[in-house]
């Protein structure tokens, strides 16, 4: 069996290919999620004419660069890509969490940053009675963060 030196330990060649395939798969899942979230956000504002609230703008500012950051990381096969993507996705996850707490009334609207323009609690879209725009954003950031953590953990093993 052929064996390669990999980070000061001996790893069978087949294991290396399994690790690379795992990392590549979850990187593509994260990129696809970022792209779909970006296109969905643009579609809702440009074609459905839903005005984004202030928290939505913050989430967009954290989501849109993820498409490029993850794509460049994949193309360059950059092993440090999760270190570039995680700060954006975790920041978006925090903002989306706060937005959901506001939207569902768990935080009073009086402490909302949405004072100019659209309200952060305005119901613009509710699929199946519970799937909202803030929830979609939260799910997107959670999937991207989860994938980047998996990629990071697999690369450190």
Helical run tally: 4
Average pLDDT? 81
Q: Largest beta sheet, briefly?
A: 2 strands, antiparallel
**How large is the share of residues in beta strands?**
5-15%
Strand order of the largest sheet: 1-2
CATH class group: Mainly Alpha
Compute the gyration radius: what is it? 19 Å
At CATH's second level, what is the architecture? Up-down Bundle
Overall geometry comes to elongated
Which helices and strands occur, and which strands form pairs?
Elements: E1 3-6, E2 9-12, H1 13-46, H2 54-75, H3 81-103, E3 126-127, E4 131-132, H4 133-156
Antiparallel strand pairs: 1-2, 3-4
Feature tags:
157 residues, mainly alpha, Bromodomain-like, 4 strands, 8% strand
Description:
It is a single chain. The chain has four helices and four strands; from the N terminus they run ββαααββα. By secondary structure, it is mainly alpha-helical. It has one domain (3-156): Bromodomain-like (Up-down Bundle). A two-stranded antiparallel sheet has the order 1-2. The chain has a two-stranded antiparallel sheet with strand order 3-4. β1 (3-6) and β2 (9-12) form a beta hairpin. The radius of gyration is 19 Å and the shape is elongated. The two termini are 21 Å apart. The mean pLDDT is 81.
Q: How would you summarize what this structure contains?
A:
This protein is mainly alpha-helical. It has one domain (about 5-155): Bromodomain-like.
């Amino acid at each position: 069996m052929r064996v390669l030196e990999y980070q000061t330990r001996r790893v069978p060649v087949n294991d290396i290919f399994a690790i690379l395939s795992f990392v590549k798969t979850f990187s593509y899942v994260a990129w696809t999620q970022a792209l779909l979230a970006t296109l969905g956000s643009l579609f809702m504002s440009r074609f459905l004419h839903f005005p984004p609230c202030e928290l939505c703008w913050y989430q967009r500012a954290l989501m849109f660069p993820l498409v490029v950051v993850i794509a460049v990381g994949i193309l360059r096969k950059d092993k440090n890509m999760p270190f570039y993507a995680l700060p954006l996705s975790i920041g978006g996850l925090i903002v989306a969490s706060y937005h959901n707490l506001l939207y569902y009334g768990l935080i009073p609207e009086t402490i909302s940053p949405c004072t100019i323009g659209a309200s952060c609690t305005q119901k613009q879209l509710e699929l199946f009675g519970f799937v909202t725009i803030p929830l979609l954003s939260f799910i997107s950031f959670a999937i991207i963060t989860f994938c980047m953590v998996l990629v990071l953990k697999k690369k450190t093993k």
